[in-house]
Amino acid sequence: MEGSPTTTVTLASMLSMIGDVFEAAISWVGIVSDTIMSHPLLLVGCVLGFIGVGVTLFKRMFNI
Length: 64
Hints:
Blueprint: H1 11-38, H2 40-63
Helix pairs in contact: 1-2
């Protein structure tokens, strides 16, 4: 491609970008957990999800 500028990505800049994404993800987890804790009815869905995962894991463990 003629005329297109090339950008160089260094390891330091890549690690910085990964850190920014990780920091944003942790922030989102905090927002979701605060919302769930302030509305206990939302906690029911999380608990049922964990119970479903536990039952599935036990079924797979005893099938093998």
